[in-house]
Amino acid sequence: MVITDEQLKKLIVDVGLLDEAKLAEVEKYAKNSDLPLYDALIEKDIATDENLGIIVSDYLKIPFIVLGKISIPENAFKIIPERIARKYKVIPFERGHEGVKLAMVDPSNKLIQETIEHKTGEKVIPYMATERDIYGKLFIYRKDLQKTFDVLVNEQLKNVGKKGAGDAPIAKIVDLIIKYAYQDLTSDIHIEPEDKDTLVRFRIDGVLHDVLYLPKKYHEQVVTRIKVLSSLRTDEHLAPQDGKMSMDLEEERLDIRISILPIVYGEKVVMRLLASHFRQFSLVDLGMTPEDLQKVNNGFSKSFGMVLSTGPTGSGKTTSIYSILKIVNTREKNITTIEDPVEYRIKGVNQIQTNKKAELTFASGLRSILRQDPNIIFVGEIRDSETAGIAVNAALTGHLVLSTLHTNDASGALPRLIDMKVEPFLVASTVNVIIAQRLIRKICEMCKASIDITKEQLLKNFPESVIGKYFGDKETPRIYKGSGCAVCHGAGYAGRIGIFEVLEVSPEIKKLISEKNDANAILNQAMQEGMDTMLDDGMKKIIKGLTTIEEVLRVTKIETL
pLDDT (tens digit, 9 = 90+) per residue, 348-364? Predict the structure, then answer.
């Protein structure tokens, strides 16, 4: 951090972001969690990374830049190689008649500025950028990922058998696959044996991309290497195996979940990268509006009751719950979780992983947790009547219970609990707030362009009432789209953001639940009380240029007319 924690504390109080008492609480959380104060302020949703950056840059009287919101030309960032950008946390983002504009985490670093001036013969103009923003923009150096990957791997394969090259370059290949996946913000690596080759695919922003073909003769060695790193049986080829491994990267120690499954052409490997460095977001970072954020705050600020997050697999439910856990995590509270699996470690939180062999299920684990004097409980998922009943009773007896459910929308979660044999009056008494969400891809900033769309085209996808609400009487509203570039693998999208609907259980909704009304009646009442549906939230993000109509339609499953 370019300023000390003491300077930052004074700034936070001076600008009125927190009073000294609240700041002391955040400072205590930072100390207990072994975090810089800057990161703790973000995790507690006190301020966004951008807002804090602006506060610090104003104090230092240095201009501030948000790299995530601009397109950086190649003639600018190619001034320095990636390793220098990563080491010194700097990125040149503009080159013109004024000189080279340089985004820096530490603008007081004169050495790197002088080095660039000497190299280019041009004046360097320092700008401040946050560390998260710098790391988030380093993907621009990955433009030639496929080409670079092929060259590196092929070089290793050519050296097999050569003197001094070792018996096989397999360890290097596996390391390269993981490192490049991490730097490309990949969530899952798929290593799939085919008839003649082995295909490596990365899941980026929820979509799989073909990245590399390896000769089939190396497939078994790659799988064996992964098994050794994961402490799995190397002599077992006909049964599924699950394991985990870790890798030390420059940015962090990366945890990886391994799943190996025998298929027709050999063993398929899927590796889930559980990255945490700058990738665990706050609710604001996830795209939640201030109005919805206030409803969620109201829900978890109570000392009892339930906060539910709903949506299909991969919709970011657990990430949202983790964001809440970080906010409520203080030394005065005993927080215990039961998860399948534990994806991220949270310091100060007692995290339990389910274990079928030991008969440690969500239900049995939850019973044991209740004997551990908890204040807050996180149940990874309510899957059955037994877990639902215990969770509701825990919420009734003075505990705050956080959990997830697989339902399509917020209003559907309430009848779902009743279907699980929970009495309607108990559901009405315990549920504080329900968050329904989906993850949508954001338009790539490097190839983003505005386009005009006709009202007739909109009518093919949306009801006229929705078009009138968000586009008014405009005959050709302006929206945005990514044209596709090397950075986004031609997809037109880079990164993801959430769309939400947050249902706060009001007295009127409690009455509807107790009277066993269906999800539609609850939804209509919530909308009358001002709740935005996921479609509403998606439309707002379309107008802001964050995403496209196609993305919102994809995740909200609206039938075209």
Answer: 899 999 988 898 999 99
Phi and psi angles of residue 445, each rounded to the nearest 5 degrees, phi first: -70, -20
β-pairing verdict for 266-274 and 253-263? antiparallel
Reported confidence tier of residue 559, pLDDT bands at 50, 70, 90: very low
Q: Is the dihedral of CA 306, 311, 312, 316 positive or negative?
A: negative
Residues 324 and 411 in one domain: yes
Q: Considering 120, 138, 156, which residue would you say is the last residue of a domain?
A: 138
Percentage of residues of the chain with pLDDT beyond 70 = 93
Question: What's the Cα-to-Cα distance from 425 to each of 80, 303, 435, 439, 509, rounded to whole Å?
Answer: 64, 19, 20, 32, 11
Residues 250 and 309 in one domain: no
Which residue bears the tokens 């601009």? 70
Instruction: List all residues 6 or more positions away from 340 whose beta carbon is below 8 Å from its beta carbon.
Output: 353, 354, 362, 380, 381
Two tokens, residue 401 = 């219970």
198: Cα within 13 Å, side-chain hemisphere: 23
Structural domain range at position 231: 143-274
User: Do residues 480 and 449 make contact, with C-beta atoms less than 8 angstroms apart?
Assistant: yes
Residues 129 and 158 in one domain: no
Are residues 241 and 109 located together in one domain of the fold? no
Instruction: Report the CATH number that the domain containing residue 13 is assigned in CATH.
Output: 3.30.300.160
Question: Which of 408, 342, 401, 417 has the alpha carbon at shortest distance from 369?
Answer: 401
* 3-class SS of residue 184: coil
Angle, nearest 10°, between helix axes 5-14 and 49-60? 100
Measured distance CA(276)–CA(253) in Å, rounded:
9
pLDDT at 143 over 60: no
For residue 167, what pLDDT band results from cuts at 50, 70 and 90? very low
Q: How far is CA 76 from the centre of its chain?
A: 29
| Beta strand 350-353 pairing with 241-248 | unpaired
User: CA 378 to CA 365: how far, in whole Å?
Assistant: 11
Average pLDDT of 294-318?
Answer: 92
121, exposed or middle or buried, with CB in 10 Å at 0-12, 13-18, 19+? exposed
Q: Could you give the 3-state DSSP secondary structure of residue 544?
A: coil
Task: Read off the amino acid at residue 561.
Answer: L
Q: Evaluate the CA torsion angle 23, 26, 32, 37 in order and state its sign.
A: negative
For residues 216 and 209, give the distance between their C-alpha atoms in angstroms, rounded to a whole number. 19
Other CB atoms within 10 Å distance of the CB of residue 14 = 10
Secondary structure E strands in 131-205: 186-193, 197-204
In this prediction the pTM is 0.80
Identify the three-state secondary structure at position 195.
coil
